[in-house]
Amino acid sequence: MAFFLETLLGGLMVGMLYSLVALGFVLIYKASGVFNFAQGAMVLFAALAMARLSEWIPQWTGIDNKWLGNILAFAVAGLLMFAVAWLIERLVLRHLVNQEAATLLMATLGIAYFLDGLGQTIFGSNVYNLDIGMPKDPIFVFDSVFPGGLLINKEDLIAAAIATGLVALLSLFFQKTATGRALRAVADDHQAAQSIGIPLNRIWVIVWCVAGVVALVAGMIWGSKLGVQFSLTTLALRALPVVILGGLTSVPGAIIGGLIIGVGEKLSEVFLGPYVGGGIEIWFAYVLALVFLLFRPQGLFGEKIIDRV
After folding, report:
1. Burial class (CB in 10 A: 0-12, 13-18, 19+), 103
2. I need a surface site. Which of 123, 206, 257, 279 has the fewest CB within 10 A?
3. What is the DSSP string of 1-63?
4. Residues 14-63: pLDDT tens digits?
5. Closest by alpha carbon to 163, among 224, 76, 248?
6. C-alpha distances in angstroms, 11 versus 262, 269, 270?
């Protein structure tokens, strides 16, 4: 029982980190109605910026305090992501207002390759360590309930808590603020939103800035766990089944989808892997996403679109 609960908790915490990456897809889709293939590149670019700035700022300023250096690096990296978001809107999206979704999709692919190259040019292509102060030692909990207790990674626990808090803030933002409601209106119909006075360009800047901050947080957490390397762009591919499962238009769906994928991967690998030769964790999420595409393509919480003629 203890081993099962350890696997379950590990899956839940990994699932929250998947949800954090999936949020970037949901945010952009809710505002523009297009799938943002640049999200993985944004995570990598933000992680590279954070890793290199955490090295450069102490050298430039002479600050010895690691926490203060990381805070300054986070602030500068956040401003950099804001600048990237503004430039994307100014130079690309502004010229594609009211264009077909396929056109916007191809634009995000171009943005992804551009950010990959720009990140390598500015920050280098080596593997960088990112120490943001999260403890990596495991802890044992519930010693009085289970013999020896449950083994939990403190880094995963803190990362899951950060992801949960960010998800909660974004959910409140979309549901309770005028800007959040305007984002939903823009996603439904660009021309109708413009006709009632919603400034489409400003909305896109806001949502790309928010997605940039989400990418920065995701890049920090995954970079701390895995190191900052160009394989971080594949996180976007790992998050694709999450958004398919939860629904492209649902922030809560990204959470539930991430938890289901994370738990399903861990449990299937541990309990079914020995019988089929292992490797289930690699393809489990995609098979589950395929099933949903066949029977419920809008996802668990996605909006079913009905066209009447």
Report:
1. exposed
2. 279
3. -HHHHHHHHHHHHHHHHHHHHHHHHHHHHHHHSS--TTHHHHHHHHHHHHHHHHHHHHHHH--
4. 888 888 888 888 888 877 777 888 888 899 999 999 999 998 988 888 88
5. 224
6. 4, 11, 11
